[in-house]
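Input for the complex:
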Amino acid sequence: MKYFMLIWAGLWRKKTRTILTMLSIVVAFLLFGLLQGINQGIKAGLSDTRNNRLWTTSRMSAINSIPASLMDRMMTVKGVRTVTHLSYFGGYFQDAKNAIPAFTTNIDKLAIVYPELNITPAQVAAMKATRPGALIGRPLAKKYGWKVGDKVPLGTTIWTNNDGSNNWAFDIVGIFDPLPGSSGNPLASAFWINYDYWDEARQFDKHRVHQYIVQVDDPTHSAEISSQIDKLTENSFDETRTQTENATLQSRLKQFADINFIANAIVGAVMFTLLFLTANTMMQSVRERIPELAVLKTLGFTGGKVSVLVLIESLMLCLFAAVVGLILSAGAMKLVGSVLGPATLLPVVVIIGLVIAVALAFISGLPPALRAQRLNIVDALAGR
Amino acid sequence: MSTLVSLKDVVKRYQRGKQSVEVLHGVNLSIEQGEFLALMGPSGSGKTTLLNLIAGLDQPTEGEVTVAGERIDRLSGGKLAKWRARHIGFVFQFYNLLPVLSAARNVEVPLLLTNLSSKQRKQNVRAVLELVGLADRATHKPGELSGGQQQRVSIARALVADPTLLVCDEPTGDLDRENAEEILRLLQMLNRQQGKTIIMVTHDPLAADHASRILHVDKGRLVDSTERNAA
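Predicted:
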């Protein structure tokens, strides 16, 4: 601790350079925190999926519909406990830019298949009693300030109702509070609509759904049950593909982009560049202080002690800036989360960030530290 | 008086590329405790090399260097560094203060290597700054002080750990006559009143006049020794 003044003095010898280097590190770790936060948020969302849930969609494409009548036949497959379905409403509120994650379903079965949504029996009953009713997740209600009793007009880019209009209106009959840990699940902030009401009111594609969600008794039999379900539609116009929920979401995500790879590649490139930047700063800083370091050695500081001072200086520079960057990323996560989807700065990301900062400090600080250690006092004082 | 510094048949060679250059040729020298010795000689005569060997900054190629009863030519890098911290106070021509630290912090640096508490370190720093007449400039940074004041801070730094020997390499070389005279009187006072043994390398005969003995070095040999009663 008593050497702190020497380290601090070395760090702030060239204020502008130190501040600029720190800013670079702050920005790099802000980026690291954000990208890894989004990555981890998506992973957390996927990990919230249950192995005892299978998703059945059209073999052609997930947006192709399949017959609603399939549900009763699926229930006959051995090992199937419950089946629900959902269809995309493609809704927006007031402006097409305000997309709403609205789905139609049979709410009583949904409550069973997705217990983490925490839909109460009273809310199910309210939906049953109100055909144009809607049940919404707390995060969505908060975002638009909706409350029970509100009549919410939703536009849709897909469905025309019997009036020939694309404008629909729903009565909010309940707001459900998803269980803690389910915030990463997009269904937790969805706008749920009664399938029967919607199917009756739409002009086309009646009696069909976009996908089924099957709850099975034993996840170890998922492969076999999937196969049995898909056999129900074999050689028909509506062949299906059944996978576990986790596998479906992962493959859909990869169709869009390999977020994990992109996040790691960007962070890797930034950190690699940062390594050169920080190493250059430390080398320059030590080069300028050769006479001062020689004086310290003259006064009795050993080579080892001087090199440790240089390393700690590098550590302070990197660690302080990294912590600031991570704190900023935690703050920015809320802003980004509302645009890019679920994002959270998990403790594991913070720990990885700090480990990277320490590694960065040691790798960039080691060459100048070794130079300081090997410094020949007589040559350095003579300016050679 | 007892012998504080003893050099026996000291040879120093440097390797300059493929060439080996002998800077000191078998130097024998004794310096008594409490002496104020001036080392004079033309540039390249070997006087700074001699000073570096006595101060443990460099090792002889041949011969023995004994300071305060210890054969420092046998000490390795780490041990030599610790020995320097305990026995040697350095005063440089260009002061060599750390520019971002205050005068007091600069003076405190050698004490960081001791086991003194922060409070004790501050007391010692205050005492030496008062001794060199700079207590009122303790919080000033080197850039805010004159050359003479910076050299006094440098002397305070050299004294603060109470070393056995004070080595000064051209301590007045960067100062005007008035400031140089002040510094030389300060060194003389430390020698006479505090009993500090001082070795000073200088080009300046007026500076050497303040020493109790003048040694002339030429072409790597001691050529003349003058005992004097300095003014």
